[in-house]
Design a protein that fits this description.
- The structure is a homodimer.
- Chain A contains 35 helices and 32 strands.
- Chain A has an eight-stranded mixed β-sheet with strand order 13-23-22-15-16-17-18-14. The first copy, chain A, has an eight-stranded parallel β-barrel with strand order 25-26-27-28-29-30-31-32, surrounded by seven helices. A six-stranded antiparallel β-sheet of chain A has the order 2-1-3-6-4-5, with helices on both faces.
- In chain A, helix 15 runs antiparallel to helix 35.
- The longest helix of chain A is centred in the last third of the chain and has 26 residues.
- Chain A starts with 5 loop residues before the first strand and ends with a helix.
- Chains A and B meet through helix 26, helix 28, helix 29, helix 31 and helix 32 of A and helix 26, helix 28, helix 29, helix 31 and helix 33 of B.
Chain lengths: ~900, ~900
């Protein structure tokens, strides 16, 4: 017997359920669930994702048994509906919809009104007494089937529709009457024939087979692939296909269709939130072609259906214990549910919904913590417009506040341009009349999105919210001219490249750039963070080099500094001159003289950082980059330096030449500097310890941790440590006082990882420098790998870019080896990570599993890390 | 009680023995051994190397107890000799000599005739009746003590000696009579006072203490440190000090002194070989100031002593079972032994002595194999002068054949110049009147050494043989003028920078450069190699890229190619044009077109190599270096390329720019090329397999092994392997025949090492690319590490340069991990090494211990590797 490929639902009973998402897709599983819950779901059946998978493995042919099961499903459906395919008396029409295990809105294909043909149209007219509806359904089907299934150019149909509208002076599609729509159908049939060289297939089963294939195929269309890449959707079998009896929102003015969220997806407010259109089918709402009505107004149109929706809203939230995104249709006054799924939401909404649901006892604190996508949290952390600056800036339009946040950028008018400009490092605002799935790439790189058409559930709005990207949608007063590359907002013209600013929380569009202000982190956000801290077991530190960054990070909840890069301190102002003096010096004495100038400056920096830390520990890395990074490599820079420092250009050039390296990544840097020029380390150690003593003298706790970078061989650390301890002993003697300190190393050279037992003898702590460990471990130069790494990820050689998500299978193995060896020798060794992976949720989960003591990340990622660390603990303690 | 620091010997009984070398030094241990053997050794005592070690740990102060033990040793010596320090009637004179566990000839200090003072001189005259001898001994002592112990300038004494000689018209030192020598003594005393501001110390115990300190201190003088570095002498505690009753070779014409080898140290011939001088002390022979007589002539001078020496020669060889290097003194006709040690020898001599001793049943085959230093073998493998070319070249002088081999180079006249010129990559011949320990650095970098003074045991000769460096010594007809930087050889003048050639086996000096010929590998060498092959358990392959190199390597005993680098094939002649065409191509088609031109060329290369291998396996690495290495980076080169290829300079420049990498070592190379441009790998795979089929068709066995380079992730290998196998399948189908092949990878990326279990699923073999594994594992760019690596080795962070000797503790750990993981998955996986470490004896021992199947090295190192592999097996199976 062949596998079960078809799961039916209808008449209050379904073969599937919500938990079968990976087999039935989200839509199919939830249709089954809703059916079992007793909600009014039109009957139908779901073809499994396994069938799709086997379709691909089978050279795009149906697996054996599928056809029979589909025909059986149709039979059952005909029975449930008391209607038959092609039956002029009582014709069955169905929708064919994609639906993967993870929602990919608008990315795959849908065909509505399937089963229609001239004979059926006649029957429909008879049965419904609504000639216009029948012809409208037919023309919709030809257009959709032609476009989606047969790949006829969309424009070709649109052109004919417009011609007929022009011919009869119709403004809206609804202005066309039955006869006119019949004319549209005739023209559509010619278009179909012209483009496909085939007659339009009138057999409903043939239509169905074509459409199922189209849905299967749409799983791997370009935009679906791109969407999965961007949204990191992996490991799915394919899409399921839902074949469901049609209900018609376009059956006249007592019919309609709508989408709604059980809570506000932007703010999280606990209110019913949605839109609907009467006499319309689903795509009319989603595509944003007509601007829909707010859901509240439905009670005036159909009080019963509205009340029923409110009941369903409550029922679904209690059942799913999460905010739901639903689709419904009203056919001649009667409500049908077409979809429910977990609603996409902004970070603000996610936080509020989770916090509120805990208050409402729908979910636990732990569930609340697990409910929020850490990556999305970013939205709440980035600065908003400075209110004063915003007030003073000219508003040129107001649209819908489709996705919160604030963005300033230069205007571009196409997704391609957006990608191109962004590649050059420019901030762009993508301006479109409306967006479509083809625009995904451009939306992803834009700072914000502005559309002149479409509602809160339009494509632009939904996608932008998912991306956590600021979006103002349906700004109807502006006109966007693609050809002229120009926005007209009243008298104001905005050209390509001009700056505008968007406030995605108010819908305001501003001319020019606006200064930004820090986000507020109180209320529900604080509550989620508090719960995260309660359930996480590893520490979160920050990578910060200045007192200001330190303050921001501590405000964000950092429990110390995991990486303070001292070299950044040498670039500011006049410091670079002293530093260059040091580099140019011919001997130790000359270097020492220059270093003496730097000592008080570094000491002061450290004092500021220690104060900002309020007693939290601070890991300070000694000088790391190769010296040539501090010298100008171009002639103009060298000339300038020569003038400032009164040193000949030749001397500078000679120094630059002598410091040149073929592979600076593997060159004279890290502890190799401090070992060859111990006076540099001595100065830095002195600055750290003197600063610590000075701050301690003011009654503030200090915990300095000196980190020796780029150790590959324990002897490097041994020598560096001895040398630092000698200097520290001298300072303690001079000052007649002491302070506790730690000395440790970065584990970033593979050799150090595999000999970590030896290294651990001389280290109070290890901090995994996973950036360099990735470079050396994988043999990738971060500056060069762009030439092949994207291809590598596309080929699946690496699941993710290993510089973004820690390569746990390889680089992670080195980390595991080092942890095991290090702990074997030094049971109490502190273990942390300070590479950029320290703020990336998947990498944080790895750190948790490997038993690290803390992660360290950039200040703005601290809350993300706190949440991700809590999730890692909760997810893994459950198991 | 304090430690035992003093071991006495004398009167047929010694506290020490030969096995106590590390405590007593080589000289001390062997003096004890010879005493116990009943040989005529003047009594004395040895201060241990531990005492020297504690002297240094103690801030250069004697450890407690040493003084008492030295005084007790002196007492015992006085008793043995029936003479006392400072006793005018019967004065005890002693020598104070350094002696570490490993011989460091001439590097440390020696003081002779200690105990002398004006009172003792008077007593000596009375006792010996030889006034001249007494004054000569005194003047020698003042000079030596002043020079060695008090650091008085050598020249200051020489100047006075010369003045007195000039005053009395004396030509030789021996022309000075007692009165004249007394005058020398007086002058020396003034010199001593002038330079040291001290009166010459007359108390023998004070003299002794000073001298022992001087010997201790000489352990760490510059030349001793340098010698230990060059000769890789590590782990010693310090030097022992031998205080021994003086015997006088300068007591008139029945006295003398000499050095000898029990066999010929140059050729290994089983004949007594040495030199002596009558009426002289040891340093006169060694320093080469007077030219000594061949040992055979001693039988005419003192038949008894000569016969006694022949007996001792036999006794020592039978006792030590090795060729010995001895020192003796004859005092008034009576023979005394002052030293025996294992004799330094040339590689040729080492091979012959070992082979002969097996024949003589003195040692076993295994012992013979262990007796030869693999590194030294190099001497026998490098080309000698082409005999015809040599015959046709003008001989300008003939000296002693002091160290065999042949060398051509440019003349320099100082060690410093030699080092400087060599740094620039020039081949130099160091020409000196005589060499001294200060010249060690220059001798080390020179291709050959020429001296105008000194014998076969002169400093130059001994050191050069140790280094395996060609040396012609004592070429008396030439005059070397340091000031003019000129050699006069009769009418011929050779200036600095002129080319000369040395034949170290004949002593001939030639004007100009001479072409070279291959060495012969028959006879004893073949025997040693045969025994090596008998006892070694791992294979030896070669790294070769051409049929010629392959032939050479097979002749040297290579059992296959471990690394054939295909990229070298692309540089020759017109090939580079096709290759550059490939690089410049805009698309796959363009690349394929260019690759088609390369296919037949590569195929032919492989055919040649397969033929030369005669059935041995051949590991061929697919293209490895980044593409930019194949393009000219300078403007002139780009212009030339533009003209040849009829492509604009801009296009070439653009390509070079687009291919530029910040860290090419970690860039787009290795399998990353083949994965992004699969057509390159396809072409190479096709060339390999088609060549294999063609050669197989001629009845020659072929074993191609395709090696995918720079794999870091098993998926790279998986994809590359699948792609290669597809191509191979196609070829087999086209040709309707097959050939066996293997596909494997280099393990050179640390990530591959720690995930070797996964990689092993797709690999028939691993070849450890330890060069790159060192670069990535340690984070060292080979091209840049020169800036700090020598300091690192000096600081002891790495014991050796990890690019020369495998860093077994770190990089070796990665190898061990990979071996363990790889074997776990694939029990039969072939494991080899193809980094340059494959020809380095210590690294070979590591490979043996780690269980690799073979090592691969450059053709000229194959015999070294065979020997080293045998030694590794013998050494480790013994344990």
């Amino acid at each position: 017997m062949s596998k079960k490929f078809v799961y039916s639902f209808g008449s209050g009973k379904a073969e599937g359920k919500a938990k079968m998402k990976s087999l039935l897709g989200g839509k199919g599983a939830n249709l089954a669930e809703m059916t079992n819950l007793g909600l009014p779901v039109p009957p139908g059946f779901t073809i499994t994702t396994e069938a799709c998978d086997m379709f691909y493995r089978n050279g795009k042919k149906w697996p054996s048994g599928l056809k029979e099961q589909v025909l059986a499903g149709v039979k059952k459906l005909e029975k449930d509906m008391g209607a038959s395919f092609g039956d002029p008396k009582n014709p069955l029409l169905v929708s064919v919809r994609s639906g993967a295990a993870v929602s990919m809105p608008g990315m795959m294909d849908t065909v509505l009104n399937l089963g229609i043909n001239p004979v059926v149209v006649a029957g429909l007219i008879k049965k419904s007494g609504n000639e216009r509806f029948a012809w409208d359904s037919f023309r919709r089907f030809i257009q959709m089937f032609g476009d989606v299934v047969m790949e006829v150019e969309h424009e070709a149909f649109e052109h004919e529709l417009q011609s007929v509208k022009d011919k009869y002076g119709a403004k809206q599609d609804t202005d066309l009457d039955a006869a006119m729509l019949k004319e549209v159908v005739e023209r559509y049939e010619s278009v179909f024939k012209k483009y496909t060289s085939k007659k339009f297939p009138e057999n409903p089963i043939e239509q169905l087979e074509y459409s199922i294939n189209a849905v299967f195929n749409s799983w791997n269309n370009d935009r679906a692939i791109k969407y999965r890449q961007i949204n990191d959707i992996k490991g799915l079998l394919g899409t399921a296909v839902n074949v469901q009896a049609m209900v018609f929102g376009n059956m006249g003015n007592t019919s309609g269709t709508g989408v709604a969220f059980t809570r506000d997806p932007s703010t999280g407010e606990n209110r019913f939130y949605g839109e609907y259109l009467m006499n319309a089918q689903g795509e009319d709402v989603v595509a944003g072609i007509r601007t829909p009505n707010p859901i509240e107004t439905l009670q005036k149109v159909n009080k019963g259906a509205y009340k029923q929706l409110l009941d369903i809203r409550k029922k679904l939230e209690h059942h799913y214990k999460d905010m739901q995104d639903i689709e419904f249709t009203i056919q001649e006054g009667k409500l049908y549910m077409l979809q429910t799924r977990s609603g996409k939401r902004t970070a603000a909404s996610a936080v509020r919904v989770a916090a509120d649901m805990v208050k409402e006892k729908l979910i636990t604190e732990k569930e609340a913590v697990l409910r929020i996508d850490p990556a999305q949290l970013d939205q709440l952390l980035h600065p908003m417009f400075d209110p004063k600056a915003e007030k003073e800036t000219k508003v040129i339009s107001k649209g819908l506040p489709a996705s919160p946040g604030a963005a300033s950028g230069q205007v571009v008018f196409s997704a391609d341009d957006a990608e191109e400009w962004a590649k050059k490092g420019l901030n762009v605002i993508l301006c479109r009349i409306e967006t479509s799935p083809e625009d995904i790439g451009g939306m992803n790189v834009a700072r914000g999105i502005l559309t002149s058409r479409g509602g809160m559930t339009s494509h632009a709005a939904v996608v932008a919210r998912g991306m956590g990207k600021c979006c103002v949608a349906g700004a109807g007063e502006i006109r966007i001219d693609y050809k002229k590359k120009e926005i007209s907002a009243g008298a104001v013209k905005v050209k390509e490249g001009d700056w505008i600013s968007l406030n995605g929380s108010t819908g305001n569009v501003y001319l020019g750039k606006i200064a930004t202000a820090e986000p507020s982190l109180a209320g529900n956000f604080a509550k989620i963070m508090q719960w995260s801290d309660k359930y996480r077991t590893i520490g979160v530190r920050t990578n910060a080099d200045t007192p200001h960054d330190t303050e921001v990070a501590v405000k964000f909840g950092a429990e110390g500094i995991g990486l303070c890069r001292t070299e950044h301190m040498f670039f500011e102002g006049n410091r670079i001159i002293a530093f260059r003096e040091m580099i140019l010096a011919d001997d130790v004495e000359g270097r020492k003289k220059a270093l003496e100038k730097l000592l008080p400056i570094q000491r002061k920096d450290f004092e500021g950082i220690f104060k900002a830390l309020k007693g939290y520990p601070c890991t300070i890395r000694l000088l790391d980059p190769p010296l040539h990074e501090f010298l100008p490599h171009d002639e103009a820079g060298q000339k300038e330096m020569s003038e400032v420092m009164k040193v000949s250009v030749e001397k500078i050039k000679d120094k630059v030449d002598s410091l040149h390296e073929f592979n600076p990544m593997l060159g004279h840097r890290g502890c190799r500097l401090g070992l060859i020029y111990p006076e540099i380390s001595d100065m830095q150690v002195r600055a750290i310890i003197e600063a610590a003593l000075n701050v301690k003298a003011k009654g503030i706790k200090v915990k300095p941790e000196i980190m020796i970078p780029l150790v590959g061989n324990y002897k490097e650390l041994k020598i560096a440590r001895e040398s630092a301890e000698k200097e520290i002993k001298d300072i303690f003697k001079e000052r007649k006082t002491k302070v506790e300190y730690k000395i440790g190393t970065m584990i970033e050279v593979p050799r150090a990882a595999v000999t970590a037992d030896e290294v651990a003898r001389y280290a109070d702590f290890f901090s995994f420098g996973t950036n360099d460990l990735t470079q050396m471990g994988c043999g990738f130069s971060r500056d060069d790998a762009g030439k092949f790494l994207p291809d590598y990820v596309a080929m699946g050689i690496y699941e993710y870019d290993p510089f973004q998500v820690l390569d746990t299978d390889g680089v992670g193995k080195l980390v595991e080896i080092a942890v095991k060896l290090g702990r074997k020798i030094n049971k109490n060794i502190k273990l942390g990570i300070c590479g950029e992976h320290g703020g990336e949720p998947k990498s944080i989960e790895f750190c948790y599993k490997t038993g690290l003591s803390y992660v360290s990340c950039s200040p703005y990622r601290v809350p993300i890390a706190r949440l991700a660390a809590a999730q890692a603990a909760l997810r893994n303690s459950k198991k």
